Amino acid sequence: MPKIVDAGERRREIAEALWRLAMRQGLEAVSLSAVAAEAGVSKGRLQHYFASREEMLLFAAGHAADRLRERVRRQLAGQAAPPPMAAVRALLVALLPVDEESRTGALVNVAFFIRALATPALSGAFRQGSAELLETISRCLRDARQAGELAAGIAVEQEARVLLALAGGLSSGMLMGDTSAEEAAETLDYHLARLRL
Amino acid sequence: MPKIVDAGERRREIAEALWRLAMRQGLEAVSLSAVAAEAGVSKGRLQHYFASREEMLLFAAGHAADRLRERVRRQLAGQAAPPPMAAVRALLVALLPVDEESRTGALVNVAFFIRALATPALSGAFRQGSAELLETISRCLRDARQAGELAAGIAVEQEARVLLALAGGLSSGMLMGDTSAEEAAETLDYHLARLRL
DNA sequence: CATTTCACAATCCGATCGTATTGCAAAGGG
DNA sequence: CCCTTTGCAATACGATCGGATTGTGAAATG
């Protein structure tokens, strides 16, 4: 048998080149030749690892979702036994484009958003992702309630929706450049402070 | 002199056909021929009214922004002398994709978002739009404060940011289909209730 | 050492893209 | 009535697209 390469790794390399292109110029600019050039490989290689452009885009979106999940998990596992509201904050901050990696993730997310609206396979993944996030936020809020850190008027389910939407909206503002990371954190902390007793 | 037509009206017709295409298939699918077919006119007519595809896209984005501004204005002018917090609610609801027109607006907005990140002319318009909205929300909140409808812990500027981000996040959820109009209204009202005394 | 199989690279193909060019019908003003 | 100007339609053009096809070097098996 011939050369053995890690196909998953190669696909991921290609997907990340695709991200960089999508970030800079949008998904419209993601052609086979452009991705190949960005990755520094031949067009033939892309065709070897992906049956079509569509499959390549799908894989790139899935890979981005995996990375986001991993980032959230890392952020939550960061502190050993944090006060519950600190966990809520950490979780929400993980959703904001604060560094290079999360900015890439957020941009790729937005780039695929519209496409997802017309692509069942993608929209399912998006919906599942946000459902997972909503559940995680709810869980953290319930912990906070048990720890007595939550004000009386807070409804966990509703507040989780508010927080998820808030993080999404702040992300958009940050990507567009009309909100700095500091302002976003300030706004987030202002809101979180009002959840406490 | 020959036939006289309302050039602005023709451009708007074309822009709205472009929206319909962008909603269904994203901006990638917006080619001259596709827009011409959607509008039921010849490709030559598009070229007559727009110097390039780029200019056509720019005009379509601007036209969408105009419509949003007008919708917000209508919504605010709706009631003669509403209680200030009702004005805040009306304003935020105007940002949500609750009917066909606002859904179109929201979708077009998202479609142009990524493109705006790499297009100075567009990103300027986006930034100005959100600054205007932020100012309008702040003004409403100040009215509410003067009317004594606002709880003590509310900081007008910060809360305006929260509300704008919240509306943006809820819009995304509604577009993706994981939030119904009723759920979004519920979440919004839940949050607004916590702003009152 | 021959052979098979994988991992590409290179080239080709028809379709479609945005744009430029050309032609022409219709509608006032001279 | 002619002439100019506008509002398009039609077509031509080179570039680029996604995808198919073909060619080749390297490695493991027999």
CATH architecture of chain A: Orthogonal Bundle
Low-confidence stretches of chain A: none
Shape of chain A: elongated
What order do the SSEs of chain A take from the amino end to the carboxyl end, as H and E? HHHHHHHHH
Average predicted confidence as pLDDT of chain A:
95
Distance between the termini of chain A: 66 Å
Q: Which structural class best describes the helix and strand composition of chain A?
A: mainly alpha
For this structure, the CATH topology of chain A is Tetracycline Repressor, domain 2
Q: How many domain modules of chain A?
A: 1
**Which chains have the largest interface?**
A-B, 46 and 46 residues
Which oligomerization state do the chains in this entry correspond to?
homodimer
Q: What's the helix and strand layout?
A:
The structure is a homodimer of 197-residue chains.
Chain A: H1 7-25, H2 32-39, H3 43-49, H4 53-77, H5 84-95, H6 100-117, H7 120-146, H8 156-176, H9 181-193
Chain B binds a DNA duplex (30 and 30 nucleotides) through helix 3.
Question: Describe it for me?
Answer:
The structure is a homodimer of 197-residue chains. The first copy, chain A, has 197 residues and is mainly α. Chain A has a single domain (7-193), classed as Tetracycline Repressor, domain 2. Chain A has nine helices and no strands. Chain A has helices at residues 7-25, 32-39, 43-49, 53-77, 84-95, 100-117, 120-146, 156-176, 181-193. In chain A, helix 4 packs antiparallel against helix 5 (84-95) and helix 7 packs across helix 8. The model of chain A has no long low-confidence stretch (mean pLDDT 95). Chain B binds a DNA duplex (30 and 30 nucleotides) through residues 1-5, 31-33, 41-45, 47-49, 52-53.
